[in-house]
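Deliverable D2.4 — example input (structure tokens):
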């Protein structure tokens, strides 16, 4: 192996060698990675390859009518980059797209990004300690070759859409639309439209297109929970409200914190048979019955599985729209398309002008292109039967390869943006060690990955996510739940706060202590720093215990005490308030 240039007689401890990084995808994860890398590191080269003509990932691609985020807009931002002038509580995809474009321009991230470039292959060279990457220029068709020390997969998992598996797709002579590949030139006015799917995108698109179509037939294979308003309902912000947020940053911060506090206080709703689960389910049933006002419809629309088995999505107007005169709900799966319409599992046939498929994405985490490890094994083959992922950020057996929103990442509840930040911060701890310790390669150990997967498998049966329901969280072939972290959002953030060095297999160029260099510190190479920085008037050293660090970080003791919905040690299946180590029933 050819070692990188390093002179132990000249270079001080933690000498920063140059490093080349390739990132795949310029959505929220890729932009966050570029920003944080640029903010903290020097002596690096970064290229982000993005297949789309623009940045922001899923929010560039999804433009169907009614498309919006299911998280309050003020909290669907980077924690350090608020936006005061969101137009409504739940922002549209176009507005979110504008936010990420503005973020990229503000921090000059465009210089790293090559749009319309799609990575088609990545092969690890053990001898070089590099990834050799093949890219296709989608404009010219030219095939390009590049290489890097570290490869970052930031393409997300909600970008691989497909038509539903229905016979006769090529027979239908009407117009077919997919919510993930919407054609805005198609005019739905006065058309007979069929809609397949009642997941998040189906719930959003149905009320949006109902007023303009002639008839709308909603094909519903299985019922879904319609979430009641928890916190702030969807509405447009007034000019006065926007001005207040613009002029008073403290009020904006307080608003964002209140939203986060609400979302972070209800994780126990996802624990099977918990008090919050039972209360929310009863509330959903009551509100759905009130809207439907029909026992037969209620029986068809209200699920039997627990609330939260599939992703909870605000659904303003969905059930109300189902009662409109031009809307028909068909509780049967579409099994075949004909030239003029479709045939359902129950044998009914429906003529259609347009068929809208709100059938989501492939969330199996199958790789979109070959990723070949040091022994010639592809990641797709290695993950064929089990997703051997470490904490949602790395893959066993694949060196210098990290990912954002990988398997077992926390995307089930709350905003995913703070979790992306958490993942990127953790990955950059590895990048820092790589740059300053003459590391050849790093990869999670098979034992660490195996133990993590075993813990996840042990935890999941206690949650509603493991129940039988149609859910994007699950892998159909295995029934597993790879899209979710085994715990709450705050749990994930705390788990990734520190780097667990013993979980990693690290290989060095030569002697692992060569990084000690010529015996001098970096401070002695800095003519402008304080060489007596450690002399203090009082102890300002970092807190030694996790507990103390957490209390300081979360400002423990500064807030009004709240009821804690946590498993009681005496009754693990009950969600209770634990106060002074005594358990008592909690009320919401």
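Example output (designed residues):
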């Amino acid at each position: 192996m050819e070692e990188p240039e390093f002179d132990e007689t000249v270079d001080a401890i933690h000498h920063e060698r140059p490093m080349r990084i390739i990132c795949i995808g310029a959505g929220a994860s890729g932009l966050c990675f570029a920003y944080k890398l640029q903010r903290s590191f020097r002596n690096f080269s970064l290229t982000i390859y993005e297949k789309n003509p623009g940045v922001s990932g899923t929010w560039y691609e999804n433009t169907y009518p009614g498309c919006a985020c299911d998280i309050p807009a003020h909290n669907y931002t980077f924690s350090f980059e608020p936006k005061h002038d969101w137009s409504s509580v739940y922002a549209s995809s176009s507005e979110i797209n504008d936010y990420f474009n503005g973020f990229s321009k503000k921090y000059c991230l465009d210089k790293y990004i090559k749009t319309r470039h799609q990575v088609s292959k990545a092969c690890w060279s053990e001898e070089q300690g590099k990834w050799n990457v093949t890219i296709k220029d989608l404009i010219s068709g030219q095939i390009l070759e590049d290489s890097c020390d570290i490869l970052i997969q930031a393409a997300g998992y909600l970008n691989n859409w497909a038509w539903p598996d229905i016979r006769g797709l090529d027979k239908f002579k009407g117009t077919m639309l997919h919510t993930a590949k919407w054609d805005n030139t198609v005019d739905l006015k006065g058309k007979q439209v069929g809609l397949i799917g009642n997941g998040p995108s189906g719930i959003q698109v149905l009320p949006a297109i109902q007023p303009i179509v002639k008839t709308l037939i909603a094909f519903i294979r299985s019922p879904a929970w319609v979430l009641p308003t928890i916190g702030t309902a969807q509405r447009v912000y007034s000019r006065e409200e926007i001005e207040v947020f613009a002029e008073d940053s403290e009020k904006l911060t307080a608003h964002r914190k209140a939203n986060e506090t609400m979302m972070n206080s209800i994780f126990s709703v996802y624990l099977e048979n918990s008090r919050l689960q039972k209360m929310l389910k009863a509330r959903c049933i009551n509100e759905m019955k009130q809207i439907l006002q029909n026992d037969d419809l209620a029986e068809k629309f209200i699920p039997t599985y627990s609330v939260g088995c599939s992703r909870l999505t605000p659904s303003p107007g969905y059930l109300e729209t189902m009662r409109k005169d031009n809307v028909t709900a068909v509780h049967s799966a579409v099994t075949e398309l004909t030239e003029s319409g479709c045939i359902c599992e129950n044998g009914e046939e429906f003529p259609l002008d347009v068929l809208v498929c709100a059938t989501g994405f492939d969330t199996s985490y199958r790789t979109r292109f070959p990723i070949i490890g040091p022994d010639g094994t592809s990641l797709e083959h290695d993950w064929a039967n089990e997703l051997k992922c470490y904490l949602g950020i790395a893959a066993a057996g694949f060196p210098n390869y990290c990912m954002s929103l990988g398997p077992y990442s926390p995307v089930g509840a709350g905003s995913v943006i703070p979790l992306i930040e958490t993942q990127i911060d953790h990955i950059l701890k590895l990048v820092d060690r790589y740059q300053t310790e003459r590391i050849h390669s790093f990869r999670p150990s098979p034992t660490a990955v195996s133990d993590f997967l075993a813990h996840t498998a042990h935890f999941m049966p206690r949650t509603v996510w493991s129940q039988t329901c149609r859910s994007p969280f699950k892998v159909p072939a295995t029934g597993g739940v790879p899209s979710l972290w085994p715990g709450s959002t705050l749990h994930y953030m705390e788990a990734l706060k520190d780097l667990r060095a013993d979980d990693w297999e690290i290989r060095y160029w030569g002697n692992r202590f060569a990084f000690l260099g010529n015996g001098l510190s970096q401070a002695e190479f800095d003519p402008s720093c304080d060489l007596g920085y450690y002399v203090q008037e009082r102890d300002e050293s970092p807190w030694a215990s996790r507990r103390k660090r957490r209390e300081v970080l979360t400002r423990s003791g500064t807030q009004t005490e709240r009821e804690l919905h946590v498993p009681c040690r005496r009754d693990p299946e009950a969600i209770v308030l634990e106060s002074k180590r005594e358990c008592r029933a909690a009320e919401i």
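The mean pLDDT is 89.
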